[in-house]
Design brief:
With 199 residues, the chain is of the alpha/beta class. The chain is 34% helix and 20% strand. It has six helices and nine strands.
């Protein structure tokens, strides 16, 4: 199932202001969110890294790559991942925010298949504005130049990158629940306890 040339990147550098503590170490079911994210990426990716400049980010069977521009938002996390991919000779990065704990390997496989069929960026479709989740997505390494341009211009949102490069939206399981507070964490835990993620 592993696709040659794909780097998986767990984005774990957020400030977690609403939850009040590092999300990546929080457990959903029996697993920490950082372990769930890495496990979702691993089957499709040759290497999985964690992007974070936070000293408390849990260590594990992954390299921790710091943001090149600390405190510059999720777009900076994607920049760091794309830099690592370019250095490694990877052709694309599969990014997954650590606080999307219901996304599993099947969902990532759907995104990767869309990217491989089209050669374009692909992100999980969701309800709301925007109607996609830019932190559950595949970005070609060629996107790095656009990321750098956006960050140099003061942009911090990953949404801007996906819209600029004209990515495709893909219906994937379980990309809706983002853990920002205790209520979200409880909902994620209940979902896991019920069994496979709701589609």
């Amino acid at each position: 199932m592993t696709s040659a040339g794909l780097l998986g990147a767990v984005l774990a550098g957020g400030a977690s202001r609403r939850l009040g503590r590092d999300k990546s170490a929080e457990r959903v079911g029996a697993e920490r969110m950082i372990d769930r994210a890495a496990a979702a990426l691993r089957p499709c990716c040759e290497e999985v890294i964690v992007v974070s400049s936070r000293p408390e980010t849990p260590r594990g069977p992954w390299s921790v790559v710091p943001d090149l521009r600390p405190s510059s938002g999720p777009l900076a996390g994607i920049e760091a991942a794309l830099h690592r991919a370019a250095e490694a000779g990877s052709r694309a990065v599969v990014v997954l925010a650590v606080d999307l704990p219901l996304v599993d390997a099947e969902a990532i496989g759907v995104l990767v298949a869309e990217h491989e069929a089209t050669g374009r960026a692909a992100a999980a479709e969701r309800d709301g504005d925007p109607d996609f989740e830019p932190l559950c997505a595949v970005y070609p390494v060629e996107s790095l130049a656009v990321v750098t341009e956006l960050l140099d211009g003061g942009e911090r949102s990953a949404r801007a990158l996906f819209e600029r490069i004209g990515g495709t939206r893909v219906a994937v399981p379980a990309a809706e629940l983002n853990v920002n507070d205790e209520g979200d964490l409880a909902r994620a835990t209940r979902s896991v306890s019920r069994g496979p993620a709701v589609r």
